[in-house]
Specification:
The protein is mainly alpha-helical and 175 residues long. The chain contains six helices and two strands. The chain has one domain: dinb family like domain (Four Helix Bundle (Hemerythrin (Met), subunit A)), CATH 1.20.120.450. It has a two-stranded antiparallel sheet. α2 packs antiparallel against α5.
Length: 175
């Protein structure tokens, strides 16, 4: 039950990130909008690198793999849409494969991240919060970069009342 909650919540953030990035022109994926800021491509490479490192051999090795180049994930460059999509899909694929092998009984199992002992449950909470933060950054950047072409990913401004009414009607018992 609990592992399926994690799986569902991670899937929501994956979907939000993908919907946001789909609205960004290819040439804008590498744009940095603030000094010392990150581009969408940097954030995607970081998410992909983080998920790959944390969830490869999750139960048996430290979550910070010696082969990971975290600093390189934030390096400037001109990365194509294909490269960005591949980095995204690769990291999420590792996470999803690992989540598919876990059961609720594994949640109290000990793992480590950067040598710090933790439980599977704590590691999943930590990762979910980390991913949510970076997906939020991607959404903000995508909103800025898509400009007037942006299509909201949630309830449009000024439409909360209508949204709530339609939800209530959908959930109302049939008469």
């Amino acid at each position: 039950m609990f592992t399926s909650d994690f799986t569902a919540e991670f899937a929501k953030y994956r979907s939000l990130g993908e919907k946001a990035m789909a609205q960004v022109p290819d040439e804008a994926l590498n744009r940095v909008v603030a000094p010392e800021g990150n581009s969408i491509a940097m954030l995607v490479r970081h998410i992909g690198g983080n998920l790959t490192s944390r969830f490869t051999d999750f139960l048996t090795t430290d979550g910070e793999k010696p082969t990971r180049d975290r600093d390189g994930e934030f390096s400037d460059g001109s990365f194509t849409r294909t490269h960005v999509d591949d980095a995204w899909a690769s990291g999420w694929g590792v996470l999803e494969n690992t989540l598919g092998t876990l059961s609720d009984a594994d949640l109290e199992t000990g793992v480590s991240i950067r040598g710090e002992p933790t439980t599977v449950h704590q590691a999943l909470v930590r990762s979910l919060a980390h991913i949510a933060m970076h997906v939020g950054q991607i959404i903000l950047l995508a909103r800025i970069l898509a400009s007037n072409e942006w299509q909201t990913l949630s309830i449009p401004k000024g439409q909360s009342k209508q949204f709530n009414q339609s939800l209530a009607q959908e959930k109302a018992p049939a008469r």
